[in-house]
Every structure is written in structure tokens, then in C-alpha cells.
Design goal:
It contains eleven helices and 25 strands. The protein folds into two domains: 258 residues, Alpha-Beta Barrel (TIM Barrel), CATH 3.20.20; 89 residues, no CATH class. The protein is an alpha/beta fold. The protein starts with a strand and ends in a 5-residue tail after the last strand.
């Protein structure tokens, strides 16, 4: 693996000195939408920028000490738009640096006059000077080490079509090649909201403005913030493919926590392989069927015998042996036909876990109050099906992606309702949003998505006639939606 040391102008708000922050014309600090929020450092504040340079030197020193090539990224440096075109460019340090060039820009969207455009140009010059000083500090700390600089730019903000002049401040000409070795572009808001077609034009606009050829560009595709939106991975993968086809040097799928959480996997050249077939395993499993529940835990033991344990999977993974379901030569033929249709291990399918296939704890018939899906907020209508295991801090929530058709029962506020539909992603879509605080519960039967564990199926006629049971190992796959 390669390592890029990334340093952003963004800092946890609670830890940021008040005079380091970008501020709007009313003195409000630039705050992101994260909870709790981060803030943006003012490129004009000498102490804030000096601190960033010290951090850059410390990061590069770690790389040099480890004997690594130094890959340093300035991550998303920009002047913050607090919403409705309200720029945070009026902190004391910026106002002092601009002097008479600091004028009122109530809304950066739409047409601006010459003075306002001149202010945006001056802001761009301040931003470019700050990134150049940061890069110089990192390069100095690298010494004779192999050093490459990267600039990460978030296209939906800096090339917002509603604010065409904003690029004067947030894509300054001081960044033009060869100021950085690599231009890195990301656009996940466009991709995940169905506006991915804007990416190609934005990449071209950046190439024209800054002069980096597509071969000196890298593309960041992602990310999916919430697990309920995991269907967005398909659009993200398509955007990465399009960027590679356009000739970018590299395309990255990010970020690792979301990729691991959702089990996203990208296979080059495998577009023709269908990941999942909505068909049931064709045989009823026998009493001797094997069921195994597994997790993946990294365990590091110290010399003193103490341990640190890290759980790598948010949910368990199931394994089965369906061999006991083969009771006749007809079953063998059925299994062989099914195996061929799945292309061995290539295609997943539905399988009924003999011990855990119902919302009720005892495995009985589902009731509408079996599992809590969430509480109403007066607006939300979509509730994902889940099953809970354990209680308190040890409770685990399992996403149910394959409910059995016709088995789902739903209650709102303790009253069963039929005013809902079940989506293809395993969620309940209510006709009306539940009232605030109303508990939404459900009961259901469900299957597990599995595949054959091997690409080879062996059944011996001699051993089968002698009463020996074949082994048909199956393994759970993370749902592909």
C-alpha cells in the first residue's frame, strides 16, 4: 500500500482558537454540517497557517523516518460558503490583508460587479500563497527524500454552476501547473445524486483553468455516508470507470470504513457476471445440516500477555453445509442443475437458515411487534428491516435484506397496519409518515444471500448409494444492494 499524508484547512471547531476561523460578514464562524462541527482555518491568519506548517513538517518527518517516499496532499483548501452564497471571508485577518479590496458580497451566486470580482481574485491569491507556504514547509522537511505534492479539490463546491465567479477565490490561478505534481478531484455529491454527467465537464474546466493534463489528474469516487444508501456504490463504481476511461492516472474508491461496512467490491472486467439471483436453494435441508456463525477479529498480544482485539466485521457471516438435503438421485440431478445455473460460486442465491429465519426470538410465526425498526419523526416513511441480538451495550443489529414475500407484518404505535409496501432493498415504506415518537415495529420471515463455497461440486454415486452424505458448503455474501 502507498501512503499519502493529507492535511486539510478543516479543524474540529471546539479545539480551534476563535481568531483562526473563517467568518461571515456577521461574525459567524464557518461551520461544516458534521455533528459536532468542524470549522475552516483562515488562509490569511499567520498563526493558523504557521501551525499547519508545523503539522506538515511533523507528518513528513514520520515518512522520512520510516524510509517512505513522501506523498503530501493539501486537502480541500477553500473559502467556505455557509449557505445561500454567504462567504466566510470577513474574519479580522482576511479583512486586514485585503484592505480596501474587502467589499460586501451578500450573495456570491449570480452576477457580481468589478469590485466584488476583484475581491474574489484577491482571496484566491491569499489562498494560493498559503498553500504554497504549506507545500514549501513539507518539501523542506522532506529534504533529499522522494517528494510529490498533491492538491485535492472538491468540484461540487468550487465549480458550483450557481456561483460561477467563486472559482476566482477557490480555484486560484496560483495553483496552475506546475504548482503541484498531481491534481486530485472528487465529486461524490454529484455522483450519488444522479448528476455524475457533470464530472467530465468539470474535469475539463479544471484542466483549462489550471493546466494539468488528464494524465496528471487522479479521481476520488465516493463516499456513501449512511449504510441505508449503499445502492449508491453502483453509481460510484461507474463514475470511477468513466474517469479511468477518460485517462486519469489513478481512480480511488473511498473511504475504507464505508467500503468495509457495506462490503463494496469492484471487479475489473466482470460486468457480465450477475452478482445475485433471486431464486431459492432448491432442496429442503436435512436434520444434520451444519450451521456456523463466524466473525473476524484481529488479536494483538503483547510480551506481557495483554491483548488488544479489533472486530473487523460489523455483522456475523454465516456458513452452511446443505449436503444432508440430498436424499435421492433426483436431488443430485436438481442440485447439479442448480449449481451449473449459478456458474459455481459466481452467483449468489437465497437460502433459508434452519435455525434463524424469523423475527420472533423462538423462531415462531412473525408478529407485528417482533422487532423495533425505529421511531417516527413526522417525516420519515422508509424503515429498514432489522433483527436485534443481545441487549444493552452488547446488542447487535442485523440488516435483513431478503424478507420472504407476504410474511412482513408492521405496526405503528402498537397498532398493526397494512398501509405499507416492502421495497426490493428490504425496507418498509409506509403510506404515511408515523407521528413523532411512534414506535415502528415489524415481524417477518427472511432468507440469507449465499453462494456455493467452491467452484467444484463432487457427488460420488458409490458413496451416495452406500449412505454417505455429500458435502455442499455454502457461504453467506453481503447483500449486493
Amino acid at each position: 500500500m502507498g501512503l499519502i499524508w493529507s492535511l486539510s484547512y478543516e479543524l474540529f471547531d471546539a479545539y480551534c482558537p476563535a481568531d483562526w476561523k473563517q467568518r461571515d460578514s456577521e461574525g459567524n464562524p464557518a461551520l461544516t454540517g458534521w455533528e459536532p462541527p468542524s470549522t475552516l482555518l483562515s488562509p490569511a491568519h499567520a498563526e493558523a497557517m504557521g501551525w499547519l506548517q508545523l503539522v506538515a513538517r511533523a507528518l513528513v518527518a514520520l515518512a522520512v523516518e520510516a524510509g517512505l517516499p513522501v506523498r503530501f496532499q493539501v486537502g480541500e483548501p477553500w473559502w467556505w460558503d455557509a449557505g445561500a452564497g454567504r462567504l466566510c471571508v470577513y474574519d479580522a485577518a482576511t479583512t486586514a490583508a485585503l484592505g480596501s479590496a474587502s467589499v460586501a458580497i451578500p450573495d456570491v451566486r449570480g452576477a457580481l460587479d468589478a469590485g466584488q470580482c476583484a475581491m474574489l481574485d484577491a482571496l484566491g491569491a491569499l489562498l494560493a500563497a498559503s498553500t504554497a507556504a504549506l507545500l514549501a514547509a513539507a518539501r523542506d522537511a522532506a529534504g533529499a527524500s522522494d517528494f510529490r505534492s498533491h492538491l485535492l479539490v472538491y468540484l461540487p463546491s468550487v465549480l458550483d454552476p450557481a456561483a460561477p465567479e467563486l472559482r476566482r477565490a477557490n480555484v486560484p490561478l496560483g495553483w496552475a501547473a506546475p504548482a503541484f505534481d498531481v491534481l486530485q478531484l472528487e465529486d461524490y455529491d454529484w455522483v450519488t445524486t444522479g448528476r455524475g454527467a457533470a464530472s467530465a465537464g468539470a474535469r475539463a474546466a479544471m484542466a483549462v483553468r489550471l493546466g494539468y493534463p488528464v494524465s496528471a489528474q487522479q479521481y476520488f469516487a465516493g463516499f456513501v455516508l449512511d449504510a441505508d444508501d449503499r445502492a449508491q456504490w453502483a453509481a460510484i463504481a461507474a463514475a470511477a470507470d468513466a474517469a479511468e476511461a477518460a485517462g486519469v492516472a489513478r481512480a480511488f474508491i473511498w473511504a475504507l470504513p464505508q467500503v468495509a461496512r457495506d462490503g463494496f467490491t469492484c471487479f475489473d472486467g466482470e460486468d457480465a457476471v450477475q452478482a445475485f439471483d433471486a431464486v431459492d436453494f432448491p432442496l429442503a435441508i436435512g436434520r444434520e445440516a451444519m450451521v456456523a456463525t463466524e466473525f473476524s477479529t484481529q488479536i494483538v498480544s503483547s510480551a506481557s500477555g495483554h491483548e488488544q482485539r479489533a472486530s473487523e466485521w460489523a455483522e456475523a457471516r454465516m456458513r452452511y453445509d446443505a449436503g444432508p438435503g440430498i436424499r435421492s438421485e433426483a436431488d443430485v440431478r436438481t442440485l447439479a442443475e442448480f449449481f451449473r445455473a449459478r456458474r459455481g460460486a459466481a452467483r449468489a442465491f437465497r437460502f433459508r437458515d434452519p435455525f434463524d429465519h424469523a423475527s420472533a426470538g423462538d423462531g415462531g410465526a412473525p408478529g407485528p411487534g417482533d422487532q423495533l425498526l425505529g421511531e417516527g419523526d413526522g417525516e420519515t416513511r422508509l424503515f429498514a428491516l432489522v433483527k436485534h441480538y443481545g441487549v444493552g451495550d452488547a446488542e447487535q443489529e442485523r440488516a435483513i435484506r431478503l424478507p420472504v414475500a407476504g410474511s412482513v407484518r408492521v405496526a405503528v404505535g402498537g397498532v398493526e397496519t397494512a398501509a405499507f409496501v416492502v421495497t426490493g432493498e428490504g425496507a418498509v415504506l409506509l403510506d404515511d409518515a408515523p407521528a413523532v415518537g411512534a414506535a415502528v415495529t415489524a415481524g417477518f420471515l427472511f432468507d440469507v444471500p449465499v453462494r456455493f463455497a467452491d467452484d467444484r461440486l463432487e457427488v460420488s454415486c458409490a458413496t451416495f448409494l452406500a449412505g454417505e452424505i455429500a458435502s455442499v458448503p455454502l457461504i453467506e455474501v453481503r447483500a449486493p444492494w
